[in-house]
Design brief:
The complex is a heterodimer. Chain A is mainly β. Helices cover about 0% and strands about 50% of the residues of chain A. In chain A, the strands form two sheets. In chain A, strands 2, 4, 5, 6, 9, 10 and 11 form a seven-stranded mixed β-sheet that branches. Chain A has a four-stranded antiparallel β-sheet with strand order 1-3-8-7, with no helix packed on it. By secondary structure, chain B is mainly beta. In chain B, a hairpin with a 2-residue loop joins strand 7 and strand 8. The radius of gyration of chain B is 14 Å and the shape is globular. Chain B starts with a strand and ends with a strand. Classes of the chains: A mainly beta, B mainly beta. Chains A and B meet through strand 4, strand 5, strand 9 and strand 10 of A and strand 6 and strand 11 of B.
Chain lengths: ~110, ~120
């Protein structure tokens, strides 16, 4: 089975720019979650998508937005980038509705904002 | 809101020895799940072990086991016969049994294996 894949691996942007990160979910999974992991910290939940709808959101401003597509892949968009947005962004997929379905994580996208 | 606390920023253990990583959490819920994830330099979060709160029996996965104390809200991870490949960041995480699958993570413990 194909695991969770994220692109790009690394990205450098300038403050004020916009960025789009992409995630392909694991085969058979219908739910995608996004996490932000600042250096030396644990991941923080941004939001989750299920059947193309946002299904829960963490404490992140509206300039963090997302999409889920019919094939269950997903995008994370961040507008008006700030220096504090520099972090590792992790995508995780699961099969919601399946008992005991664990989250499967990708290798993340390292975003640096200068 | 739930919180997860890992009070050991770093731990080290001799190869083949046993090490225990600590985790405490705070919640008002009675039904939930607890996890330990491993994050090697490859950055991918890898599930090590999970525990359902309604189960009294401690979960075990090969060399990894947990000590789940529900009343004390404690969830420690024991790694037996430590191997060089166990070196990584270890994160404790909480998930409610209701609603979406949001995980709340602790700040992590960096485990070093001494050859």
């Amino acid at each position: 089975e194909t695991g969770v894949t994220q692109s790009p691996t690394h990205l450098i942007k300038t403050r004020g720019q916009q960025v789009t990160l992409r995630c392909s979910s694991q085969s058979g999974h219908n739910t995608v979650s996004w996490y932000q992991q600042a250096l030396g910290q644990g991941p923080q939940f941004i939001f989750q998508y299920y059947r193309e709808e946002e299904n829960g959101r963490g404490n992140f401003p509206p300039r963090f937005s997302g999409l889920q597509f019919p094939n269950y892949s997903s995008e994370l968009n961040v507008n008006a980038l700030e220096l504090d947005d520099s972090a590792l962004y992790l995508c995780a997929s699961s099969s919601q509705g399946t008992t005991n379905s664990p989250l499967h994580f990708g290798n993340g996208t390292r975003l640096t904002v200068t | 809101a739930q919180t997860v606390t890992q009070s050991q920023p770093e731990m080290s253990v001799q190869e083949a020895e046993t090490v225990t990583l600590s985790c405490t959490y705070d919640t008002s819920e009675s039904d939930y799940y607890l996890f330990w994830y491993k994050q090697p330099p490859s950055r991918q979060m890898i599930l090590v072990i999970r525990q359902e709160a309604y189960k009294q029996q401690n979960a075990t996965e090969n060399r990894f086991s947990v000590n789940f104390q529900k009343a004390a809200k404690s969830f420690s991870l024991k790694i037996s016969d430590s191997q060089l490949g166990d070196a990584a960041m270890y994160f404790c995480a909480y998930r409610s049994a209701e609603g979406n699958e949001k995980l709340t993570f602790g700040t992590g413990t960096r485990l070093t294996i001494i050859p």
